[in-house]
């Protein structure tokens, strides 16, 4: 019995070690591959340069950072209210049984490959956005391949993350809280907004941060529907290019200098995500409630 | 009964997997030791190494695959790198065949002893079906893609803004298009910054199909049926107009070799130029150059 436990302990340790080693190896690899490009171009000119045109020797990724930020922000603006509303609906309004149906439908969304989202976006969302742009801002973008299209698709893609984690944390709010709230004469809306959501905020925050991580890292879908124009977008109807999309698109036949620059984009992305995660942990530690 | 069958199936599957792993392992060892023993053949442990243009790469891979099926002793490795790497790889003995999707330039000619045109490819200019322009000149295409012409009315169409769709930097199709139209001049790609960029033939087709007033370019082999193909300088792209040279936006696929080429390389090229090889060229959507095959 004792030896068996020890063996299992060792096995789990190896598993943990493998994942840590994987993170370390990836980090070392990206930095080793990308650092030369940053050194050659100069960190400031690389991050704040406004022209990305590798075949002409210009490596400025500000338009790409702006593009990633714009679609991610857009996805959060659309996705957070939708996701939270959905989570409250599932955990507070309908019965467990009905919620089960909705939840499995939403979780199915998580299983759809992102290239399918991309083609769906290209066939459905892009023409809709083109129509909208034509009506609202005729000069901004004629194609519909835009920040808004990317944001809408990403919002759909991060819904499962936001909904399922939020539902779990809302459901783990003790029933006594609800009963106490009703007993004090609060109605349902007040109970949800003033008692339950604040109590579940830690889980809700982590769902948003995870969703954001997914949005900023998503590649294939945004590649197909944002138009990949490396210019800082001036409108939500303007096309844009993201960091991940550019890496995926240009990696396959990049010349050595160009390839290093793409890895350098990977470094920037890596740093952004590390900062994001750090920020998330601080937020969660500060606001972390009892629940979840 | 049924669970037993399943059990057997699982056991069989497991056995197959173990055998595959073992075989791959042994094959790895085998080829490793063989390569250290073999002499003269350049480029690691393969008999034939093809390096260069990424546009030729899928065709080379398909040709190598069918060739290796019939010649089990031969090992062919296909690498990318771009046309610029083709002659460099030949010179540094990394490759036995340099693959190019353009003609050799003068500096490259001296280091190559023979080139074979294995196939040709045309780049078709496509527009959305609402565009009522049927014919564009190379000069007009250059102006459209460099952003000097932005309205269809300037080239005989309706008064509508042109939505320019391009391929990504580094794409072989983009290289061929920009070179032949003069968008790429003095080694500088002047494609307009307002151009939508799509990273695959399929995505360009789909974007042009669904975006009114758009223009794009794709390999002739992959023009989809729901977009309109325009004539260039009065010639519509087809196998025959590419072969006789009247359709201008086209490129040759070349294999370049040095006089040091080993016998396996020579035999492979002989196969590529044969009827069987050219049939593969056609099957992959490119234009065969061997007239007897058509």
Features:
heterodimer, A: mainly alpha, MetI-like fold, two-stranded antiparallel sheet, B: 294 residues, two-stranded parallel ribbon
Descriptive notes:
- The complex is a heterodimer of chains A (292) and B (294).
- Chain A is an all-alpha fold.
- Chain A has one domain (3-287): MetI-like fold (Orthogonal Bundle), CATH 1.10.3720.
- Chain A has helices spanning 2-41, 43-48, 62-93, 96-110, 114-136, 147-171, 175-183, 188-199, 201-217, 220-225, 243-251, 256-287; strands spanning 52-53, 58-59.
- In chain A, helix 1 (2-41) packs across helix 12 (256-287) and helix 5 (114-136) packs across helix 6 (147-171).
- Chain A is globular and about 70 Å long.
- Chain B is α/β, with parallel strands linked by helices.
- Chain B is built from ten helices and 14 strands.
- In chain B, strands 1, 2, 3, 4, 6, 9, 10, 11, 13 and 14 form a ten-stranded mixed sheet that branches.
- The longest helix of chain B is centred in the N-terminal third of the chain and has 36 residues, at 2-37.
- At the A-B interface, helix 5 and helix 11 of A face strand 8, strand 9 and helix 7 of B.
Secondary structure layout plus pairing:
The complex is a heterodimer of chains A (292) and B (294).
Chain A: H1 2-41, H2 43-48, E1 52-53, E2 58-59, H3 62-93, H4 96-110, H5 114-136, H6 147-171, H7 175-183, H8 188-199, H9 201-217, H10 220-225, H11 243-251, H12 256-287
Antiparallel strand pairs in A: 1-2
Helix pairs in contact in A: 1-12, 3-6, 3-9, 4-6, 5-6, 6-9, 7-8, 9-12, 11-12
Chain B: H1 2-37, E1 48-52, H2 57-70, E2 76-81, H3 83-91, E3 97-100, H4 106-109, E4 114-127, E5 135-136, H5 138-145, E6 163-167, H6 172-181, E7 184-185, E8 188-189, E9 196-198, H7 201-210, E10 214-219, E11 228-229, E12 231-232, H8 239-243, E13 250-257, H9 263-273, H10 275-283, E14 287-288
